[in-house]
Amino acid sequence: MPVSRIKLSIFINYFLFAVLLNSVGTVILQVQRYFKVAESSAAVLEACKDISIAAASFLVASFIVRIGYKKSMLAALAFMSIACFCMPFLKTFLAVKLLFVVTGVCFGLIKVSVFGTIGLIAKDEKSHISIMNFIESFFMIGILSGNFIFSGYIDDSNAASDNWFNVYYVLGMLSASAFLLLLTAPLDESAARQHTKSDNIGKDFANMFLLFLLPVVLSFIVCAFVYVLLEQSIMSWLPTFNNKVLGIPASMSIQMASILAASTAAGRFVAAVLIKKISWFTLLCGCLVGAAGLVLIALPLASGAGIKIINGWADVPVAAYVFPLIGFFLAPVYPAINSIILSSLPKTKHGMMSGLIVVFSALGGTLGSLVTGSIFQEYGGQVAFYFSLVPLAILLAALAVFRAQKNRVVLSEIVDAGMAPVKEMANMH
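^ thats the sequence. predicted structure below, dont judge the formating
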């Protein structure tokens, strides 16, 4: 099966949704300026996005193989195109919330389908990890580009300007183009369907829950949940931190946040090389320690910032350049643990496992943004970002548990209970 066109298609799909999903940080700042809402109210946008991702993933993950990965992605792109083209005509806070709900539902379909598709086109575990890192790097490039795309439509001098809604015309056209490309990309999904004999959707849901009972899966989910909690708490509130704590103008605050995306993309490219030379656990633990060190170095530099008038890049406080480099250290964690758990499963279970990944990642992102928004409102931006040290410590411990479970894979009790999905996994080990 030729895979170049389907690879290009899923890269572009991820790029598009990187722009849409991670515009939440930009839009959180903009709705505070345009609609005059409080930080805690603006933080609800993260929940609109992530809860809808979790709901969509949960509902379709167990039987998405029956629908088809390609059909699911096409449906998501079609709905996303319509939502984007409608946005400039609505211009209400409710419409913004609904846009992120639609974005979340569509991304739930896209992510589960993309993870399943990687399993179909990857030749082996190393190939799987390589494609996963490359796709996640492309996701960060989308975030980087999105910051500049959105900032070009923002008027620093007029918070009431509605010009920023016009960016959705651009995103609507990109989504429509992605739809047309995917429509012409061939994808053989027979390997994913070959063991799917039952038409009982209830049994499919039960099998997904049984998969969740595996200790190695459960420990992985904790890692994924905490990682996304940490990542989204930083990513969603960095533009607001730049604007309200460091005193950087709104459009420049959004552009400065692109440093986080760029450093994360660079970190994933470097990790794709390093992970072939050293163990994944050593690499990830070193990265988390480096991230904690950067927090302790960067945030004290923000003290006293926000007083100086900023007219250009040369006037920006050093903290605005240093803190976003945390993305370089956090970057390898998510794609690495995803690849490790997925490559351990048969291809027929990738859809179910992808659903669990997306659901708990979305829930982690929601909690991270809400907690950070509340701390930001009550105690200020510096305290909110110092809070990142807590999930960093939890994630370090969770990775150790995940490695131990991965090495042992204790399945005897579950296999004895006659659970078919687990039996397949047991045979692999």
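Residues 410-429 have pLDDT under 50 and may be disordered.
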